[in-house]
Amino acid sequence: MTDMAASVARFTAMGTRVELHLFGCDDPAPLAAAKAAILSVEDALTIHHPSPATALNDALSTDGTATVEDRLLFAALLQVDALWRETGGLFDPSLGHWSALTIDRTNRRVSTARPLTLDFGGFGKGYALDHAVTALLAMGVGSALLSAGESSIAVLGPHPLGGGWPLAVPHPEDEGAWLVELELQDASLSISSTIGAGAAKPDRAAMIRPTDGAIVTTPATAVAAAATGAEAEALSTALLVADPAARERLRAAAPDRRFLFPHAAPVGAKRALEPTA
Amino acid sequence: MTDDDFALSRRTFLDRVLLASAGLGMSTAAPWAARAAEDIPKGQRVRIGVIGTGDRGRTLIQNLNKTRNCTVAALCDTFEPHMAKARAYVPANTPVFTDHRKMLEAREIDAVVIATPLDLHARQTIDALDAGYPVFCEKAMARTIADCSAMVTRARQRGKILQIGHQRLFNPTYLNALKRAQAGEIGPITQIRASWHRNRSWRRQIPPGGTEREINWRLHRDRSAGLMTELATHQLQVANWFMGGLPTRVMGSGSICFWKDGRDVYDQVALIYDYSDGRKVIYTSMLNNARYGCEEQIQGSKGTIEPELGRIYQEVQPGAVPALARMRADVQAGRKNTVPIGGATWFPELPVTTPGDSLGWGEYDETMLQFEGFGEAVRSGKEVPGLLAQAYHASVASLLGEQAIDQGKALAWPTDLVTF
Ligand SMILES: NC(=O)c1ccc[n+]([C@@H]2O[C@H](COP(=O)([O-])OP(=O)(O)OC[C@H]3O[C@@H](n4cnc5c(N)ncnc54)[C@H](O)[C@@H]3O)[C@@H](O)[C@H]2O)c1
């Protein structure tokens, strides 16, 4: 590729900073479309102000039933449902109660057998980037890197200089050290960690293992690459909260794309950088 | 420190004050500073009678001794052990008194310095003014707003100088901070969060011959407003100064929360002072946790100043992700490098811990400078401009805060104050 023209958007959304880097494109329209896509996902899924998601939560928290009119929210529910199955229930934005939900696809009706609420959290970021990628592809963009809070990254097409995008996940505590290096193309990456600067966010929700309700505090970082942001988010969360047996099953299915790095070595000791076996 | 070193450090200090006070708008915001740093003409030293030789009084005596235009010519205290300590700082033949009126009647002084418990300031100031003497009185001015006003009015009636001790007004770090704020470096100031937090009882041990009410006057409501007059005054002065105006109203709450030792002044207070255009000063003071210490966090849309720490901070915008900025530069340069990115979600609203920049200029005794200013005022008969208004408004703000706490309601800034 010879045309190095690049355009960039930086803005805050979903409680963090988002950056969209487009290469080989100096038309402002795709950038604006990608940003708009992210903001509409945020509007649909946020629980920080009234939204389709909070309206749904109001109904489900009284073990009620609701018709989901919002297209983005309903599509998100269907994807979560598939990912909940794929991860054996380890990815569950209802914190362990997803099995109580029934989704009627034809009538877009959702009902629950017990009170629950949904928090799309990290999934929302991956899902928003997926929609941004779709918007960019529709407008002919061939090369882009998108980041939401640096924990969700999507790459579209090849690197502007050809081949995949070389990405490295830094060690959260060892400056200069990397946990893993990956070369990705048309893929998404999600990182979930119980440590690092962002993990100290005051009102950050605890990581909970949905299968038994345990709070996961073990210092660890999970990394997952997948075809979509939604899937990458579900897998990194599942890897972080899984018990050893379940984690091994998840990893074995794609050992070069799913990693869990424990950081449990004593302070000051050289920490193991190998993924858990 | 040799005399030469002292002269040199004095000169550097004065240069810093001059430098700091030379900024745009500073002649209005701190008209006293440039004047105080001027060279002092040779002449007779102003003979000072000091009333109150306790902790502060003795510090003041040592500072008077450093000035080029004042000398301590008489001491007055009712408590002999304090007087005995103070005499160590003055010539052996310095006259001493136990009644300030006797000292005034002796007519061997040119001016009076007062460092006694708060409830005595008004009476002693007015007695000295009536006797024809200029007065330097320690902050806070008086126990009531009416007495603060009476002091100013009497000084005017008698045509005598009245100056109140607020040393931050002469502190080069504060002056420099104000200069930078005036230059717009931190944007419009909309909130000042000030606190004075200590972790000690504030109770002094009573020496032989002393009494609880005399030694621990700060802990007795009829003598002092406690945290409000003894600590908050300093910071409310700073707040008014940086806000460039006066509060419109104050609301507050106070309690005797931790030191339930018989005191009847609050050991914890929290207040909000409203200023024009919705600006606010949020003030807290307490006596059982010192982590946040003494500070005024002066906050504007572009930055923050913390003068006690002597630092200025620029607002940190959610910056570009460094790794992605590098990636762009690499691509531009035709390099394909690994992009290190990823971790717990970046979150913008943790407290910012950037180190900021120094406002410069270490400690030096600005209390001395207040006295050189006072000495020149006495000699020339012209007050150091601007100081009294600052002190008066700081004392009114602290006493109004006390009233708002006592009455449990928001109180408007009084309309019957002395004007300047
Ligand atoms: N500017 C500052 O930073 C600063 C710091 C400390 C104190 N102060 C102020 O200085 C003043 C004194 O505080 P302090 O800590 O020195 O108190 P202190 O109790 O140590 O000293 C007060 C002195 O006044 C004497 N006194 C009491 N009644 C008297 C009377 N009728 N005539 C003469 N002397 C009398 C007492 O015996 C005592 O020696 C207060 O107004 C206080 O707010 C200012």
UniProtKB/TrEMBL annotation, chain A:
Ranges in coiled-coil conformation: none
Catalytic activity: L-threonyl-[protein] + FAD = FMN-L-threonyl-[protein] + AMP + H(+)
GO MF terms held by the record: metal ion binding; transferase activity
Cofactor(s) it depends on: Mg(2+)
EC number: 2.7.1.180
Alphabetical keyword list: FAD, Flavoprotein, Magnesium, Metal-binding, Transferase
Pfam families (alphabetical): ApbE
Gene3D superfamilies to which the protein is assigned, alphabetical: ApbE-like domains
Name of the featured protein: FAD:protein FMN transferase
Organism (species): Sphingomonas pokkalii
Lineage of the species this protein comes from: Bacteria, Pseudomonadati, Pseudomonadota, Alphaproteobacteria, Sphingomonadales
TrEMBL record, chain B:
SUPFAM superfamilies xrefs: Glyceraldehyde-3-phosphate dehydrogenase-like, C-terminal domain, NAD(P)-binding Rossmann-fold domains
GO molecular function: nucleotide binding
Signal peptide feature range: none
Annotated ranges, domain GFO/IDH/MocA-like oxidoreductase: 177-306
Superkingdom of origin: Bacteria
All residue ranges annotated as the Gfo/Idh/MocA-like oxidoreductase N-terminal domain in the record: 46-166
Database matches in PANTHER family: BCDNA.GH03377, NADH-DEPENDENT DEHYDROGENASE-RELATED
The protein, known as: Gfo/Idh/MocA family oxidoreductase
